[in-house]
Amino acid sequence: MPPKRPSKANEEDPRKNDEPKKDLTEDHKVKIPPELVAKLVKNFLEDEGTKVSGAATKTVGEYMHLFLTEAVYRAVSNRRDGDPWAKTTNSGLMLEVDDLEKIAPQLLLDF
């Protein structure tokens, strides 16, 4: 008797193997432009003679990216918890300013 073949439900779609996998750890993620980060940092400095190094700009940019990513994840999570339709569908979820305002206090305390 030949061995049982696994059901088709457990097999991967061969078309999926042709698609390149996106890895967010690579440089595929959206980054905040360093020029924008430098302008934002300079805008908040009191002494106009203060210079900001490239390493500082890069570090602040990474921190801002992490902060914004966490804000969006938390807002989406809260939105899905309050909306039964969003839990069952995988369609695009639209965030509004109110969603971000709701998570802001706890997010600021956590950072």
TrEMBL record:
GO CC entries: FANCM-MHF complex
Predominant cellular place of this UniProt entry's protein: nucleus
Record-linked InterPro entries: CENP-X (IPR018552)
Subcellular location: Nucleus
GO MF assignments: DNA binding
Keyword list, A-Z: DNA damage, DNA repair, DNA-binding, Nucleus
Region of interest called Disordered, as start-end residue ranges on this chain: 1-30
Basic and acidic residues compositional bias, start-end: 8-30
Pfam families: CENP-X (PF09415)
Entry's family note: Belongs to the CENP-X/MHF2 family.
UniProt-recorded name of the protein: Centromere protein X
Species of provenance: Orbilia javanica
Phylogenetic classification of the source organism: Eukaryota, Fungi, Dikarya, Ascomycota, Pezizomycotina
